[in-house]
């Protein structure tokens, strides 16, 4: 992994053929490119909306599974099924649900509402959000459950002896005990946001509706054009931003542990 990444860094300072040193010209070209700015804005917006929603939803599911006891196994299996569904099948399901004459619009028409062009308007962004949450909530739920299993039950028993309510136990025992799991789950979820490109690409192609034109679309198009200089520079920039976000998040959580 390190050698290919080092070669990507090297290529970011050379022309597409890799023969002439161009300095920071590729980085300047990337930052000045309107398509890159649009893709970066959409990707940042997607992550900012998806990540908190996924973490909260998956934690709620994990708590519900633990509370269900006897029925928890069936409940857990239900939310793990999307992980086993191939991406191509998800794309077909997506088309059947949200196409112009799909199931969603048929239901809207039956209720007297006007059909919505889900994939040709800003609604496509929320369809992508829904798909990501549906696909990844079960995976994150399992991670949260592993973290919950690591909290000693003796802490809850001692708290209840002292008269603590369920809400107080959750705030003062469960949440602090889940901080290490929060870091791991958040980082994996952040990286998984870059995999949603597969569904968007299969449904809408290389140039989808502008609200779901992500960095992965841009990288795919530049790769098809063999624009390796700008592609390498953009990849280095994205990697640097991701590393910075992860390190800042880790620092914040470490401070929380110290408090």
Outline the structure in words.
The protein is mainly alpha-helical. Helix content is 76%, strand content 0%. It contains 13 helices and no strands. Helix 1 (2-11) crosses helix 13 (228-258) and helix 3 crosses helix 10. The longest helix is centred in the N-terminal third of the chain and has 35 residues, at 34-68. The chain is flat. 22% of the residues are buried. The mean pLDDT is 83.
Rg from C-alpha positions?
22 Å
Which consecutive residue ranges, at least 5 long each, have pLDDT under 50? Answer: none
**How much helix is in the residues?**
over 70%
What profile does the largest beta sheet have?
Answer: none
Described by the principal axes of the CA atoms, the overall outline is: flat
Number of strands: 0
Q: Give the strand content.
A: under 5%
Summarize it.
The chain is mainly α. 76% of the residues lie in helices and 0% in strands. The two termini are 36 Å apart.
Task: Throw out a few tags for this protein.
13 helices, 259 residues, 0% strand, mainly alpha, 76% helix
Can you lay out the helices and strands and say which pair or pack?
Elements lengths: L1 H10 L13 H8 L1 H35 L3 H13 L2 H12 L4 H8 L12 H27 L3 H9 L4 H12 L1 H14 L4 H8 L10 H10 L3 H31 L1
């Amino acid at each position: 992994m390190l050698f290919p990444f080092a070669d990507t860094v090297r290529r970011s300072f050379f022309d597409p053929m890799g023969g002439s040193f161009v300095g920071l010209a590729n980085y300047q070209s990337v930052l000045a490119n309107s398509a890159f700015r649009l893709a970066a804005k959409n990707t940042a917006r997607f992550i900012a909306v998806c990540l908190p929603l996924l973490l909260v939803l998956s934690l709620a599911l994990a708590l519900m599974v633990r509370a269900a006891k006897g029925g928890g196994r069936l409940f857990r299996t239900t939310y793990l099924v999307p992980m086993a569904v191939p991406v191509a099948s998800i794309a077909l399901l997506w088309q059947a649900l949200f196409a112009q004459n799909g199931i969603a619009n048929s239901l809207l028409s039956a209720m007297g509402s006007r059909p919505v062009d889900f994939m040709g308007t800003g609604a496509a962004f929320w369809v992508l959000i829904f798909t990501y949450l549906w696909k990844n909530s079960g995976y994150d739920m399992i991670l949260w459950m592993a973290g919950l299993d690591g909290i000693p039950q003796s802490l809850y028993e001692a708290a209840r002896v002292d008269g603590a309510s369920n809400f107080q136990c959750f705030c003062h025992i469960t949440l602090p005990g889940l901080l290490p799991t929060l870091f791991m789950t958040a980082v994996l979820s952040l990286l998984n946001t870059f995999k949603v490109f597969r569904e968007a690409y299969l449904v809408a192609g290389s140039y989808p509706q502008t609200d779901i034109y992500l960095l992965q679309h841009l990288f795919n198009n530049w790769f098809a054009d063999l624009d390796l200089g700008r592609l390498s520079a953009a990849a280095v920039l994205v990697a640097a931003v991701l590393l910075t976000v992860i390190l800042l998040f880790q620092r914040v959580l470490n401070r929380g542990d110290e408090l």
